[in-house]
Design a protein that fits this description.
The structure holds two protein chains of two kinds. Chain A is α/β, with parallel strands linked by helices. Chain A has helices at residues 19-34, 38-45, 93-109, 130-143, 163-177, 201-217, 235-244, 267-277, 334-342, 350-353, 356-370, 376-401, 405-424; strands at residues 49-58, 64-75, 81-88, 115-122, 153-157, 225-229, 248-254, 257-260, 287-289, 301-304, 323-325, 346-348. Among the domains of chain B are: 59-203, Rossmann fold; 213-366, NAD(P)-binding Rossmann-like Domain (Rossmann fold).
């Protein structure tokens, strides 16, 4: 979710815009409802393990530069840890810690057998050559190798890392253990053990969740107008698939601006245009508008699929949609959520709505472990099963406790992790 | 794929059986270089970076070691053992274990690389390897053979296993050999490692359908060829050279499918009848007598060479390398040749056939059923769950068809013959994986 729009929220309130605080807040809320004892609560709040590593890299110029990397494993009671690796200048342990916990809940909501992990290296990839990036990736892999492995911790791409990065990790790990170990990372190229359908997985998951939620609200695709913020792997593919399902996608955006056509956009043509030009601006089948205010366009379904803190106390009153499906991580602030709740807007939370990606990562791991690869149809149909089932269990939990879907999702997630924790007991 | 009689029932003494895989079409002196030449050409066509291709020009690792064996009479002999691992870009190595007294390391090199290409064309996640033990299994007792195989395996323990290097049977080795290897690896590892070998007995993790896998693959190829080469969908006439594991099974399958099998041969000569032969009777005779020779019947008795030049729609050489050399190629009377054996069409013959407009489905695609089935066995062992026959049949059809489609697509893209297209596809897939993985340091 590195691409996409960034609307500057009005009347900024610092506390409102820390997505990790909002997750903490959600955790507390759900833990109270579940009546979780203090011990279990403390266990689930802290990461199981944190590793900080120093990475000396030989630069192309011949000098050595030392980088710092992290890998945090939040909780492995439900299985090996799963979570991305990001390369960015702003990476810090607090952020990685929060993202690792986020992964625990996300994996648990969709009931895949993983705990949460996250890793990162403090660096600016734009200032590194391809060779330096490769050396950095390989050295990082070796540095965290003791806690890595198909049954320990399985990284995936995240901010500024991609298929190629995963290929290097897979190669480095395999060479060290002296056996081909494709299942040590997911998000690999298909040529070396990647899964079909992974690239589209998050967008497809968003589409499936939208469909299920719309069914619940009793709307048909034909009379549903959709506004999508973002046009990358999540927003773009989500919009394309919704269009294919018969929804009327009236607006999409990228970081430079948005397109709006109240009669519906021709999504395949928009995506072709974007692929060719690199931006949406100038597409002729729609009006080009400012990003500011895009979320407030008239529509029934709003999909923020760009970045965090987009629906806030500043604009939640003016959101016209009946349903918000969070394609991005943390697009709605707690204040924003409260306002939407009071106005009766249904919000499908990020840890459910955008879990299609991690679900197909799980499928990739499964396929690598057996060494047999599914067709795209099979991947998609299994993703559909997982998303539909998860949506239903979240709705059921929310109805049971009479809470919104976000709290419902945290209830489902924490309940599952806590149950496993109790069953396994405290290892001594 | 019905349950077939066992190999020994069907084939008699397997060491007389020419249909077992032999080394690809080779120059006697430098089989590796000869085998690689068509891939060099392919690499040039695709425009693979010369540096990148250098990786493919050499084997990743060659292991040579001595294998001391105690004979039954108490004396000792030290044998030569080899394992050649060609390229691990696409996954663990997979390759045959050959046990033969006149086995040479250059042949193993060629065989290992050939396995790399074959796995790549069929899109199974393995690199190629080949192993050899210089030993004459016929001149020794079963106990001596077992001790040799176990010691050979023990010497390789750090280099083999389900994610490192996987064995399959070849000349001189069989189900029993694979069982010994499995047991040796598992006993040392203290865990059951049945994915370390393929072609095992079904009782210990072998897959159903292994025995006639190559023939079943050829059957799929023939069906795909019907549309592509405008062949009659019913009653197509075929000539099969070879009556062993590949040829014999194939003849039986095709006859049951309603093909007209007009000719078949074994090492002693062939039979031909334009209206088709009674395959069941001939194979039954061969199983009983160890050879087709003297089998009664109403057909022409001809030499192997004559058989190849009789009229038919599809000619399927399943016996020796270079059976169709340039002179034979000038005389064949078929529309299509499907290579059931390794390298049955010589490179000069290839040119003659091209001029005559006769297409050849190359070995690395056509006889890949065996490799695909080995892969299926490995997958089932990894899951610990065995597939039923209909699932195996369906998946084999899918893999063969996908290989076929990729090759024909490559053919259209580059405007080359099918053999060259298969080579291009293989080089592309392996070098892509190598490039993605990068150079580990």
């Amino acid at each position: 979710m590195s691409d996409g729009t960034k609307t500057q929220p009005a009347n900024a309130n610092r506390d409102e815009f820390n997505p990790f605080h909002s997750m903490e807040h959600q955790f507390g809320l759900a833990a109270d409802l579940l009546g979780l004892d203090k011990g279990t609560r403390d266990v689930l709040r802290q990461p199981d393990r944190e590793l900080t590593v120093t990475l000396p890299i030989l630069k192309d110029a011949g000098n050595i530069e030392v980088f710092t990397g992290f890998r945090v494993q939040h909780n492995f009671s439900r299985g090996p840890c799963k979570g991305g690796i990001r390369f960015a200048p702003g990476v810090n342990l607090d952020e990685i810690r929060a993202l690792a916990a986020w992964m625990t809940w996300k994996c648990s909501v969709v009931d895949i057998p993983f705990g949460g992990g996250k890793g990162g290296v403090i660096c600016d990839p734009r200032e590194l050559s391809q060779g330096e990036l490769e050396r950095l990736t390989r050295r990082y892999t070796v540095a965290i190798m003791d806690i890595l492995g198909p049954d320990r911790d399985v990284p995936a791409p995240d901010m500024n890392t991609n298929e190629q990065t995963m290929a290097w990790i897979m190669d480095t790990y395999s060479m060290h253990v002296r056996r081909t170990t494709t299942a040590v990372v997911t998000g690999k190229p298909i040529a070396i053990g990647g899964s079909k359908g992974r690239r589209e997985a998050t967008g497809r998951g968003v589409m499936i969740v939208c469909r299920e939620a719309m069914k619940k609200l009793g709307r048909t695709p034909e009379d549903t107008r959709v506004v999508v913020q973002g046009c990358g792997n999540v927003g773009g593919i989500g919009a394309l698939l919704l269009h294919r399902e018969g929804y009327k996608v009236v607006s999409v955006s990228d970081m430079y601006g948005a397109l709006y056509n109240p009669d519906g956009l021709d999504m395949p043509a928009v995506m072709d245009y974007l692929r060719e030009k690199g931006r949406l601006e100038g597409y002729e089948g729609a009006d080009s508008i400012e990003n500011e205010g895009q979320l407030e366009l008239p529509c029934e379904l709003l999909i923020p699929a760009a970045t965090e803190n987009q629906i806030t106390s500043g604009n939640a009153e003016r959101i016209q949609a009946q349903l918000v499906v969070e394609g991005a991580n943390g697009p709605t602030t707690p204040r924003g959520q409260e306002i939407l709740d009071s106005r009766g807007v249904m919000v499908v939370p990020d840890i459910l709505a955008n879990a299609g990606g991690v679900t197909v990562s799980y499928f990739e791991w499964v396929q690598d472990r057996m060494g047999y690869f599914w067709t795209e149809e099979i991947v998609n149909s299994r993703l559909e099963q997982v998303m539909v089932k998860s949506f239903q269990s979240v709705v059921k939990m929310a109805e049971l406790h009479n809470v919104n879907l976000r709290t419902g999702a945290y209830l489902v997630a924490i309940d599952r992790v806590a149950l496993v924790y109790r069953m396994r007991g405290v290892f001594a | 794929m019905t349950e077939n009689p066992s190999d020994s029932e069907l084939l008699g003494d397997i060491y007389e059986d020419q249909a077992l895989p032999s080394t690809p079409a080779l120059d006697e002196e430098t089989p590796f270089a000869t085998m690689m030449s068509s891939f060099d050409e392919a690499a040039q066509t695709v425009g693979v970076e010369p540096a990148e291709y250098q990786i493919l020009r050499k084997c990743d690792r060659e292991i040579a070691f001595s294998v001391p064996v105690r004979h039954d009479d108490g004396s000792m002999e030290v044998l030569d053992g080899f394992r050649i691992q060609h390229n691990a870009g696409l996954g663990p190595f997979l390759g045959p274990l050959r046990i033969s007294s006149d086995m040479r390391i250059v042949e193993l090199r060629a065989l290992a690389a050939w396995m790399t290409w074959k796995c790549a064309v069929l899109n199974v996640p393995f690199g190629g390897a080949a192993g050899g033990l210089r030993f004459d299994p016929r001149a020794h007792s079963s106990g001596e053979l077992e001790r040799a195989v176990r010691r050979y395996t023990a010497n390789l323990l750090t280099d083999i296993g389900p994610e490192r290097d996987v064995f399959m049977p070849d000349v001189g080795s069989d189900e029993q050999t694979m069982a010994w290897v499995l047991d040796t690896v598992s006993s040392h590892a203290r865990v059951t490692e049945n994915a370390a070998v393929t072609g095992k007995p079904t009782e210990m993790g072998g897959t159903k359908g292994h025995k006639d896998a190559v023939a079943q693959g050829l059957r799929v190829i023939l069906r795909l060829g019907v549309d592509r080469f405008d062949l009659p969908p019913k009653g197509m006439s075929v000539i099969i050279q070879g009556a062993g594991t590949v040829g014999g099974h194939l003849a039986r399958i095709l006859a049951a499918d309603g093909y007209r099998v007009c000719g078949i041969s074994d090492v002693h000569g062939g039979f031909f009848h334009a209206d088709g032969l009674d395959i069941e009777t001939i194979l039954a005779w061969r199983a009983e007598h160890g050879s087709m020779r003297d089998c009664p019947g109403d057909f022409e008795r001809i030499t192997n060479r004559e058989l190849l030049t009789r009229p038919c729609e599809v000619l399927i050489p399943c016996a020796t390398a270079n059976a169709i050399h340039s002179k034979v190629a000038a005389e064949v009377q078929c529309k299509l040749i499907v290579e059931g054996a390794h390298g049955p069409v010589s490179s000069r013959a290839d040119k003659v056939l091209e001029e005559r407009g006769i297409s050849v489905v190359p070995d690395i695609l056509a006889n890949g059923g065996g490799v695909v089935m080995s892969y299926f066995e490995w997958v089932q062992n990894r899951m610990g769950y065995a597939w039923i026959m209909p699932v195996i049949e369906k998946r084999l059809r899918r893999f063969m068809a996908e290989g076929w489609n990729s090759v024909t697509k490559t053919q259209e893209q580059y405007g080359v013959g099918m053999r060259q297209a298969a080579s291009i596809l293989a080089v592309k897939r392996v070098s892509t994986a190598d490039e993605l993985r990068g150079i580990y340091a």
